[in-house]
């Protein structure tokens, strides 16, 4: 019975061990990946107790790679890749070459054969896309310029791996291979790759979105979910079976094609649970493959290999970043993100064992290096900000890495008076800056990402380039003379640091920030933030508001529900006058919503311009009532007989259609 259920037991116990490991890792403030790896090690065949079927788990882990690559494709844009091609393409090629040479040299130092050294070098040179995307996402760097280049870089590496896996059996297989035969095999592999890509982009881009749209319209939700799974896994299987390509590449292209559909966001939402579950299985399966006894027996070699993966590749990528003048932060992000190896390294190692080039101990050493590098990679990414701050202080490093960057002149200090400082020029920050610019309110943008800073400058905004959380950039923003500080960043920890620093510089400054959680609200209020916005909460309130409007509820009733939601969502503000301002503003808007006002602008030549409402006697003349007034952006709700109408004022009127028409003729002359 045990033999019949070994796969089920392995799957369940691996999940249990991964969950326990993840909880322990969280309690120890370690990345969850470390817990998943250790959980897999516990249920693996090389530790006491239950011996799981690592081969079966590898099959399930391959599904995790497919889902992860499918999700990457959904958010991938060829436009984005073309924007970073000048760095990603040559950088990936050069790094594979240099990494292979370094690994070959290390294999020689270990006393390995030249063939085994080449296998070691190839395994070291290829990083894990799964690990990269997860760690970049956790660090909030996935959408940064460095994150986009690193992702494009690994896409190029994945394509190169397809060629490598074709070449290895030809070069290291039995028998002599002539250069002509080798060239023919390479040409065939490239032709298959090109054929599959063209098929997906030309045919798949028309068929798959159309199919998903039909299923979404006419089929129940579970069939749409099944369709997403079938497209992701079926395309990956077709790539492997029909074109001899990797599962990962097939799933990635399926995601790229589906990403062009109007349903791409719904597809992504349906795929996320599968992606998360099987990515955990992937990390657990990696832990299961590690033999601790082998690693202990070759501890010195393991340390040297990990040093090459994490330090050697970091140095290589930083050198390439300097060569291409990618920028200090971008180079650090790429170097940190690629300081690990993963799934394709396993495949190359398995190919080496199948060809008789690598021994079992050598392959275990590669696995051990992968596990350690995966476990430590998230810590390397945490060094990006402090290292970037130090590099910016060293003039020669700044000149080397930023030599091709267009410099942005800092704004003149005398112009920074009564201004609004906006930290972060992402979507939210750009919207705020656009409105302030239209209202002719002086504002200053602080942005650490150079391309985003250039966008702000192109929009006509004064810009300071730098990291407000890890530098002295706020000292140059003249917060003591500013009216408001807007922290438009999604990272709550960074916003908290900025708020602390700003409060010390300017104790009376009003600070507005965003928060994504209740804990974030409390931390930011403690840091001195005056007003907070939770985007997801406000989005939910707006969804509720529109739904209740459609159901016939009145604005005042709806506002009561909105008040309750905001009271719970902004609990940290409850004992302060800020919550009362929110409530009062909401009731004001609800009251206005119940008034069906007809607005009429007072004309420049209107004979009534300059008259008081008493002299105008609008109600006696037309029957309409004047109940509100808009003047130079200000709204006046309570009008009396002494209110004077001026040219350009907008008067809010109530009355019948005939009465309103008569009042409009009188006022709009």
Protein traits:
single chain; 669 residues; alpha/beta; 6-stranded parallel sheet; 4-stranded antiparallel sheet; 28 helices; 66% helix
Q: What do these coordinates show?
A:
66% of the residues lie in helices and 6% in strands. The protein is built from 28 helices and ten strands. The relative contact order is 0.07. It is elongated, with a radius of gyration of 31 Å. The chain has helices at 6-27, 32-43, 54-74, 78-110, 114-125, 129-138, 145-172, 179-218, 221-243, 247-258, 264-288, 292-297, 299-323, 328-337, 343-354, 360-381, 384-393, 395-401, 427-438, 450-458, 492-505, 518-526, 535-550, 555-569, 577-594, 613-616, 618-622, 657-667; strands spanning 420-423, 443-447, 463-465, 484-487, 510-514, 531-533, 598-601, 625-631, 634-636, 650-654. The strands form two sheets. Strands 3-2-1-4-5-6 form a six-stranded parallel sheet, with helices on both faces.
Compact description:
By secondary structure, the protein is α/β, with parallel strands linked by helices. The chain is built from 28 helices and ten strands.
